[in-house]
Specification:
Length: 334
């Protein structure tokens, strides 16, 4: 982190990126270093997605939580790169499950090399990360990441189970989000606390912080699926509904719209179809019933809860940076 920065000088995500630029570049160095398979195609596919413009939020959170807890060495940079490997593995697998053609505005690995290669390279990244993490000989880190990987797999299965089902409840939807998205974010925060040798109470607080901002991130992302600039988002708007997923804006709409409109939505979920006229109608209904506003308000509630998780920590630049990251989860560019 750059010398001389205080809590008052870290106000935006641009400030956070600048303040921790050296550390994040260190993470990138580790990412490149660890893509070292003797099979050239593995390295090519891994580099394709690792270089596709991800924000490295999970490594950033890990190092911020480590710095918050007084850690000053460099192992958090290595751990951050390995968490990113796990995250990247989930993206490779998700794109296969979702039949996705685009990821961050680029063709997905499955579109370039096929589903089989994507799955196997995802498996490689998982395995590579676990092999490296075991080398730290830290049982706490092993347990946290093992639990996160279990939850992510369960979350993916739950999402597939409820696919095409408009009767899913908000609590069931949030359970999927907590497992599938928030799990690894929360684990990243706790790992930072573990390497910083924070007491159990502070480890638990940062884990909750990660859960809350992870849920906020996914709620906002699901809402952006209906209202974002499609070109900047890097995917087609309404993609969740086309894949049969009822996310929070749609769940809210289903609770308030007419029987006729509800049947139309159910039909589109079952047939996995959504034309431009359907999408415009849905957006109009969501505006009329306040579904977009409701979903974003719920996302902000989780950000507020996350900031409460930081109350027990001293007011330092890393704490301020974490607060800014929490706000960023729901204030990303559309």
């Amino acid at each position: 982190m750059k010398n001389g920065l205080t809590t008052t000088t870290i106000r935006t995500m641009a400030d956070v990126w600048e303040a921790y630029r050296d550390e994040l570049e260190g993470v990138e160095d580790q990412v490149r270093k660890n893509v070292d398979s003797t099979v050239a195609l593995v390295n090519t596919v891994a580099a394709h997605i690792l270089s596709s413009g991800g924000k490295r939020i999970r490594p950033l959170l890990l190092l911020l939580c480590a710095r918050l807890c007084g850690y000053t060495a460099k192992d958090d940079l290595i751990l951050g790169s390995l968490v990113e490997f796990i995250h990247t593995a989930t993206l490779l697998h998700d794109d296969v499950v979702d039949d996705a053609d685009l990821r961050r505005g680029r063709r997905t690995a499955r579109k370039v090399w096929g589903n089989q290669i994507s799955i196997l390279v995802g498996d490689y990244l998982y395995s590579k990360a676990i092999c490296k993490i075991v080398g730290f000989q830290n049982q706490g880190i092993n347990e946290v990441l093992s639990e996160a990987c279990r939850k992510m797999a369960e979350g993916e299965v739950l999402q597939l189970y409820y696919n095409g089902n408009p009767l899913i409840t908000e609590s069931e939807y949030l359970r999927i989000v907590e497992h599938k998205t928030a799990g690894l974010i929360a684990a990243s925060c706790r790992i930072g606390a573990i390497v910083g040798e924070a007491p159990f109470e502070q480890q638990a607080a940062l884990f909750r912080f990660g859960q809350h901002i992870g849920i906020a991130f996914q709620l906002a992302d699901d809402t952006l699926d209906y209202v974002a600039n499609g070109d900047r988002l890097g995917k087609t708007l309404g993609q969740d509904l086309r894949q049969g997923r009822a996310t929070l804006p749609l769940l809210h709409l289903l609770q308030h719209c007419s029987a006729e409109d509800k049947q139309m939505i159910k039909d589109r979920m079952e047939t996995r179809t959504l034309n431009e006229a359907d999408l415009l109608r849905l957006l109009s209904l969501m505006k009329d019933y306040g579904s977009i506003v409701y979903a974003m308000e719920r996302a902000r509630e989780f950000v507020v809860a996350a900031k409460r998780d930081l109350v027990s920590f001293e007011d330092t630049p890393p704490k301020r940076a974490l607060s800014v990251v929490a706000d960023y989860m729901v204030n990303r560019d559309r």
